[in-house]
Amino acid sequence: MKPVLNKIFKSILNTIPRPWLIRVSYLVRPIIAFFLKGNKFTDPIDGKSFRRFLPYGYGIQRENALSPSTLSLERHRLMWLFLRDDTDFFTSQKKIKTLHIAPEQCFLEIFRKQKNLEYITSDLKSPIADIKADICNLPFKENSFDVVFCNHVLEHITDDTKAMQELYRILKPKGMGIFQIPQDISREKTFEDDTITDRKERAKIFGQYDHVRIYGRDYFDKLRSVGFKVDEIDYTKNISSEKCIEFCLMQHEILPVCYKK
Questions:
Q1: Which domain holds residue 24?
Q2: Which terminal residue of the chain has fewer beta carbons within 10 Å of its beta carbon, N or C?
């Protein structure tokens, strides 16, 4: 049954445009969550437990990656735990002006309801974003935001240096950004080749049909070259192995937490 399910999910991810997937997911996720109820794995974002999570991946499918209730992936759950336990993002008494590039469904409604957030979302194509905008030409003034999230976006952007410069420009001094990307830590240098345009070839080489590079360890230094102070945080080291299994986290995934000097 698992190989069939994995094949179905892989086909869906690689054939249905992302904006459509987002719309459809709002309809099907309550049904999936109901049928997968259990007590083996827990999504820390909403506290709900399931007998298993869903597989996910455009190439190789990762087992127990996608939460049936929030549709969070490993990276989302890791960021949530970091924000909850190591920052004042949810508890600050002052208003935190927050920009979320390519907003993720698992966070959207929760962040919108946070009374201490002035929460704005932006993306070029997402149907759930407030403001349609190009990340390389954002319509915001310099030093506008206390916090900026931009997760799994830069690997889609041809001129990622320009995008990083825009993220730096709009962040306030001492502001914080989290800019997650799919990263091959074993690779010293980022690999990109703009001559590769075939969807299947891109999926094979870059891991996804709409990616334009594979980031290596030099990703952090590229952020630093734009001006950011970057903390490379292996946050799973702060979480017990039992909880990592229960929350379906990816061991040793690095959180790039960036600050404007």
A1: 2-73
A2: N
